[in-house]
Design goal:
Layout: H1 3-10, E1 15-19, E2 25-28, H2 30-36, H3 40-43, E3 52-53, H4 56-68, E4 72-81, E5 86-96, E6 102-109, H5 110-157, H6 161-185, E7 194-196, H7 198-212, E8 218-222, E9 230-232, H8 234-252, E10 263-276, E11 279-291, H9 319-329, E12 333-339, E13 342-350
Parallel strand pairs: 8-10
Antiparallel strand pairs: 1-2, 1-6, 3-4, 4-5, 5-6, 7-9, 10-11, 11-13, 12-13
InterPro entries: HATPase_C_sf, HATPase_dom, His_kinase_dom, HisK_dim/P_dom, HisK_dim/P_sf, PAS, PAS-like_dom_sf, PAS_fold
GO biological process, one term: regulation of DNA-templated transcription
Organism: Aestuariirhabdus litorea
């Protein structure tokens, strides 16, 4: 394989696996390694079934493609990886004739396409929501300023301190509503991007959460120490991590045994060739915050990143909305998967290389 061809294959976002006429792996590009969670070096010369298993008919189809030299495409195939994970993909098989026929298998994960479509839909809905909130904020804050000013003038005219208590209530409530509207709008300053170590921030989160529950919560770290520094606004990213960790802590407190067997897991990994929005990134930091709480109710699972949506009676429903807005402004993405006993919030942040 020439240097140029090698470079092209290694920079493709499409996973490519090449097998020989015995269906043994002879090449995997980095996108395939990332998708299959396996290395080309380890699997070189090993049967394709060591990488993934589909069904007996798919093996027959591959062997027939070698015999007849006919390409074919399969949609919505379900692969069972060597890790035990399940992957839904579309794949194209192309025979290459030479001294021995080889097969080039190009795989496109359907979950990635679904995720991109879901992200675009969510961003579109959130932009609509933000436009609505901005309009409402303008209409609410203007009269609030007038109400507050009038209450202050009225307070000066009142001689009875007991009557001034009523104007103080008006002023305090006007301030509270104004602050609430500001929170709904999210951070107004652009991110102050600087190089930072994500593990330092996660350790700070661990300290704060442990202090809040007086050490009564088990926190497990599963860090990838090879993750390089990434560019982010330290305060804003800290706000995101704390919002998610506190939500997890509060959710786990509702378990039948409280925090006795609760566990918060912080995990970091790198991921290569990931598309976020309409941009492909060669290297991305992945940060998972996982709890074993009761899970997010099905009725709000698809709406948790919208303002004023909360599963708690006393929740404002703003924390996750703000977190999602901050991560989006960092060109990243925030996702959530939840079922009873396992909720995972995942943050993807691009790493400049």
């Amino acid at each position: 394989m020439s240097g140029l061809h090698q470079q092209l294959l290694e920079n493709l976002s499409t996973a490519v696996v090449v097998v020989d006429d015995r269906l043994c792996v002879i090449y995997m590009n980095p996108a395939a390694e990332a998708m299959m969670e396996a290395s080309d070096t380890r699997l070189h010369g090993q049967p394709l079934s060591d990488l993934f298993v589909e069904n007996p008919s798919s093996t027959d189809a591959l062997l027939q493609a070698i015999r007849d030299a006919n390409p074919f495409t399969k949609w919505e195939a379900v692969l069972y990886l060597h890790t035990g994970a399940q992957l839904e993909v579309d794949y194209v098989v192309t025979p290459l004739n030479g001294a021995n026929t080889t097969l080039v298998i190009e795989l496109q994960p359907r979950d990635r396409l679904k995720r991109i479509s879901r992200e675009e839909e969510m961003l579109s809905k959130q932009e609509t929501t933000r436009t609505l909130v901005r309009g409402l904020a303008h209409e609410i804050k203007n009269p609030l300023g007038g109400i507050r000013g009038a209450a202050q003038l009225l307070a000066r005219e009142l001689e009875n301190p007991e009557q001034q208590d009523y104007t103080n209530i008006i002023i305090e409530e006007a301030d509270r509503l104004s602050n609430l509207v500001d929170k709904m709008l999210g951070p107004v300053k652009p991110p102050n991007i600087q190089e930072l170590n994500i593990h330092e921030l996660l350790e700070r989160v661990c300290q704060l959460i442990s202090a809040e529950v007086q050490g009564n919560l088990r926190i497990e770290r599963d860090y990838d120490p090879s993750i390089p520094d990434l560019g982010a606004d330290r305060e804003q990213l800290m706000q995101v991590l704390l919002n998610i960790a506190r939500n997890a802590m509060q959710a786990m407190e509702t378990r039948e045994d409280g925090l006795a067997s609760a566990c918060l897991t912080l995990r970091t990994r790198t991921q290569r060739q990931l598309t976020i929005g309409n941009q492909r990134h060669r290297l991305v930091a992945r940060i998972d915050l996982i709890d074993n709480g009761p899970g997010i109710p099905e009725t709000i699972k698809d709406q948790i990143f919208y303002p004023m949506i909360s599963g708690r009676a006393n929740g404002t429903g703003l924390g996750l909305s703000i977190a999602h807005s901050i991560i989006t402004r960092h060109q990243g993405v925030l996702e959530c998967q939840s079922e009873p006993g396992h909720t995972c919030f995942t943050i993807y942040l691009p790493i400049s290389c």
